[in-house]
Specification:
Helix content is 47%, strand content 22%. The chain is an alpha+beta fold. Strands 1, 2, 3, 5, 6, 8 and 9 form a seven-stranded mixed sheet that branches. α4 runs antiparallel to α5. The longest helix has 57 residues.
C-alpha cells in the first residue's frame, strides 16, 4: 500500500514539473514575440524619420524653377518610354487615331543625389511633380486636342543616383495619315510625335536608342491587330522628335464574310439569270430581283465603308457590280424583245399569207396545189421561228459570257490592288 502511494506521488510531481516548464516556455515565447514586434516598430520609426530627414535635406536649397543644366555643356539626356494600353479608334474620315497610353520620362538631376548608407539604405523616394523640376516643354506635336504638353501634376520617383522618373497616363487623339487603297486588307502606321517644344532654349537631348515603345499591357482591339511598335528619330522641320510608330492591320474577316462574299454571290446569281429558258417567263423577274437586292444591300453596308476623299478599289468593285446588275436587266429585256418579236412577226405573216391564198387563189386551183402551199407556208414559219429563237439564244449566251468576263476582270483587279 505504501509502495502504490509513493508511485502516485512521483507521477504527480513529474506532471507538476512538466506543466511549469510548459508555462515558462510559453512566457518566454511571448516575451520574444513582444521584443521582436518592438524592434520592428523601432526600425519603422527610424526609417520614417530617415525618409523625412532625407526629403528635408534634398529640398533644403532646391529651386524647382531652375533646370538641372546651365550651359550647353550641361545638356540633359532625356529617355522616354511609351506603353500603349488600348487602341480605341482609327477614324478614316478625320484621319486620326485614339489610344490610351502611359508615358514615362527619365532624366538626371545631380542636385537630388544622396548616399543611401547615410539614410539607412533608402534608395528611392516618391513625391509629385509639384516639388521637382520636370521637362514641361516635352509635347506631343500631332495631338489634336489642346492638351499637348506633359505638364500635369503626376507622381515622380527620385533615386539615390539623382535619376528622376515622371509617369503620366493619357487619352491621346493624334493625327494619322490613313491610306485605304487596300481596304479591307489595309495596314496603317499611326505615330505619336513627341519632342521638345523649345529647341533653342532648352538643352534637352532626345534619342530613339534611349526610348522604348511597349506592348506589354496592350489590350487587343476587335477591329485592328497590332503588328509592331517601335521608336525612331526624326529631325525634320528643324526640331528633334521621337516618332513612336504603331503598325496596325485591319481584321478583314468580318468584312469579307458580311460584305464581300454576299456581293460575289449576288454577282454569280446575275449570271444564272441568263441560264433560265427564254420561254419560262422568269428571266426579267429574276434579274430585277437581283438588281433590287444589290441596291438595298449596298445601302445597308454604306455605313460600314470608310468615307474619305480618295475612292478605294473596294468601293469601285461594289459600284461595278451594281452597274453590271442593272445592265443585266437591260440585256435580258433585249433578249426577250428579239425572241418574241420574231415569233409575233412569223404568226402575222402566216395569217396574212393564208388569207391572201384563200382570197386570190384561182377557181381552177386543185386541192393538191392548195395543200402544197399550206405546207410551204408552215415550213417558212417554222424556219423563221427557229431563226428568231436561235438569235435570242445566241444573244443570251453572248451576254452571259460578257457578264462573266466583266465579273472576273473586276474581281481580279480588286484582289490584285488590295492583296
Amino acid at each position: 500500500m505504501m509502495t502504490n502511494t509513493s508511485v502516485l506521488d512521483k507521477k504527480r510531481f513529474r506532471l507538476r514539473n512538466a506543466a511549469q516548464d510548459t508555462k515558462s516556455s510559453l512566457n518566454m515565447a511571448d516575451s520574444n514575440i513582444a521584443v521582436f514586434i518592438t524592434i520592428l516598430l523601432l526600425v519603422g520609426l527610424t526609417t520614417a524619420e530617415n525618409r523625412t530627414q532625407l526629403l528635408k535635406d534634398l529640398f533644403k536649397d532646391y529651386e524647382v524653377r531652375v533646370a538641372p543644366f546651365d550651359t550647353l555643356a550641361d545638356v540633359m539626356i532625356l529617355s522616354m518610354s511609351v506603353s500603349i494600353i488600348s487602341l480605341r479608334n482609327v477614324n478614316e474620315k478625320d484621319q486620326t487615331f485614339s489610344a490610351s497610353v502611359w508615358i514615362s520620362l527619365s532624366w538626371l538631376d545631380e542636385r537630388l543625389e544622396w548616399e543611401a548608407k547615410s539614410y539607412k539604405g533608402i534608395n528611392s523616394i516618391q513625391t509629385t511633380s509639384k516639388y521637382v523640376w520636370i521637362p514641361s516643354s516635352i509635347c506631343i506635336f500631332n495631338e489634336v486636342t489642346n492638351d499637348k504638353c506633359l505638364t500635369e501634376e503626376k507622381p515622380v520617383t527620385i533615386y539615390s543616383s539623382g535619376h528622376l522618373v515622371y509617369t503620366t497616363s493619357r487619352e491621346s487623339t493624334a493625327q494619322c495619315k490613313i491610306d485605304i487603297s487596300k481596304y479591307p486588307f489595309d495596314t496603317q502606321i499611326c505615330s505619336l510625335y513627341i519632342g521638345n517644344l523649345f529647341v533653342q532654349s532648352e538643352f534637352i537631348y532626345l534619342s530613339s536608342s534611349l526610348s522604348t515603345y511597349s506592348l506589354v499591357y496592350f489590350d487587343r482591339n476587335e477591329e485592328w491587330e497590332v503588328l509592331n511598335a517601335y521608336p525612331r528619330d526624326y529631325t525634320g522641320t528643324g526640331a528633334t522628335q521621337i516618332h513612336f510608330d504603331l503598325v496596325v492591320k485591319r481584321k478583314s474577316s468580318y468584312i469579307v464574310l458580311t460584305v464581300l462574299l454576299p456581293v460575289i454571290l449576288l454577282s454569280v446569281l446575275n449570271i444564272f439569270s441568263f441560264v433560265l429558258p427564254i420561254d419560262s417567263g422568269e428571266k426579267m423577274g429574276t434579274s430585277m430581283a437581283i438588281f433590287l437586292t444589290f441596291a438595298v444591300f449596298l445601302t445597308i453596308i454604306n455605313d460600314s465603308l470608310p468615307k474619305t476623299d480618295s475612292i478605294p478599289p473596294f468601293t469601285v468593285y461594289l459600284t461595278i457590280q451594281l452597274v453590271i446588275s442593272g445592265l443585266t436587266v437591260m440585256l435580258e429585256a433585249i433578249v426577250l424583245r428579239v425572241h418574241f418579236s420574231g415569233k409575233s412577226d412569223d404568226e402575222t405573216d402566216e395569217s396574212n399569207g393564208s388569207l391572201s391564198k384563200t382570197k386570190i387563189q384561182p377557181i381552177d386551183m386543185h386541192d393538191e396545189e392548195e395543200g402544197e402551199i399550206r405546207v410551204r407556208n408552215k415550213i417558212c414559219y417554222l424556219v423563221k421561228y427557229i431563226k428568231s429563237k436561235l438569235t435570242a439564244e445566241r444573244l443570251d449566251r453572248f451576254f452571259m459570257v460578257l457578264v462573266i468576263v466583266v465579273d472576273l476582270i473586276s474581281l481580279t483587279v480588286f484582289l490584285a490592288e488590295t492583296l
